[in-house]
Amino acid sequence: MHTRLQLPQGASCFTFDEARARRAIEGRVVSVFEGWGYDEIVPPLFDDAATFDPTLASKLYTFTGREGTTLALRPDFTSLVAKIAAGRLRQVEAPLRLYYSGEVVRYEPPRAGRQSEFHQMGLEFLGGGGPAADVEVIAVAIECLEAAGVSDFVFALGHAGVVTSLLDEAGFPADDSRRELALSSLNRRDPLALAQSLEGAAGSEAARRALVGLAEDNGIRQSLDAARLALQGIARARTALDELESVTRTLEEAGLRGRVAIDLSESRGLDYYTGLVFRIYGAGLGFDVGGGGRYDALLGRLGRPMPAIGF
Question: Residue 292, CB half-sphere, CA atoms under 13 Å: how many?
Fold first, then answer.
């Protein structure tokens, strides 16, 4: 009988001072969002499972709807916001600056600080292209951290095109299961496992060396200049580095360059990211507290092409 009083593993519950503290943080962050001119949107709690990024498929909590369709509790907000922008808000002129706050549910292996149900706040700048839009989103994220009382953090910037182009050049097409294994090893910064996953790849040896170099941080992970030398034979990677350098120059002009660090091994691990990507780490924690990036192709797949970035 007593076991029925226990919440399911991974479920969240806030009481008294915890609930008040969370509400206070939410209020401060919302003030930042609205101060930058973002409007609130409240997406549905669930949608067709196919709406969400395929790389999250193993983490979805799915159920069968009354009509027999496969539905899923939202594991994130971005896909839903994009779907609404392409549908219900189709007649609203871009750019759209939208923010949200609410619960998301996706399976996380049991470990300290991680729950399967958690509160997520974020924004999407739809129709915002170029370095100026990238820097706006970064600036809002930094201001949100400061408003929430987080002063000690690492803001790690990368570009999805670096890792994507290297995996392609290494001989791993998008539908190759080994590609996901290599990407997982890179995200864990495990050069040995990454090298093993690259064995037998039919592509460029230089691309394979560069991927392992990113995992072991041999000098190219945090330096655009060093990476440019190491990746000079891979045109798409150089283009990605040029785009990232343009963002860092704009950050410099905005006085924010000192708040961020370069991490070219960053990829975010979701299929829809196409450009700038970032993760935010709080001091003393073994996991990220936020992240986002540019996903310029997602709205096009939904019938309303436009650049987009969010966190």
Answer: 26
Using alpha carbons, select from 118, 121, 120 the residue that is nearest to residue 12. Answer: 118
Q: Which of 226, 186, 224, 188 is nearest to 208 (CA)?
A: 186
Compute, in degrees rounded to 10, the torsion defined by CA atoms 175, 177, 183, 189: -170
DSSP string, 1-13: -GGGGSPPTT---
Helix or strand holding residue 151 (H, E): none
pLDDT for 81-139, tens place per residue? 999 999 999 999 999 999 999 999 999 887 766 799 999 999 999 999 999 999 999 99
Question: CA–CA distance from 137 to each of 69, 194, 246, 290, 308 (Å)?
Answer: 36, 32, 15, 13, 11
Amino acid at 185: S
Helix, strand, or coil (residue 288): strand
Q: Is 16 helix (H, G, I), strand (E, B) or coil?
A: helix
Residue 94 neighbours by CB under 8 Å, 6+ apart: 126, 127, 306
pLDDT tens for 45-85 read 999 999 998 888 999 999 999 999 999 999 999 999 999 99
Q: Cis (ω within 30 of 0) for the bond into 95?
A: yes
Radius of gyration of the chain, Cα coordinates, nearest whole angstrom? 20
Q: What is the DSSP string of 73-118?
A: E-S-SHHHHHHHHHTTTTTSPSPEEEEEEEEEE----SBTTB-SEE
**Which tokens hold the place of 82?**
């994009």
Cα-Cα end-to-end distance for the chain: 42
Torsion sign (Cα): 46, 52, 58, 59? negative
* CA 57 to centroid of chain Cα atoms: 16
CA distance 59 to 106: 5
Which residues, listed in sequence order, are joined to residue 73 by a DSSP beta bridge? Answer: 46
Helix 130-147 to helix 16-35 angle (10° resolution) is 150
Q: What is the pTM of this model?
A: 0.93
How many CA within 13 A on the CB side of residue 212?
Answer: 15
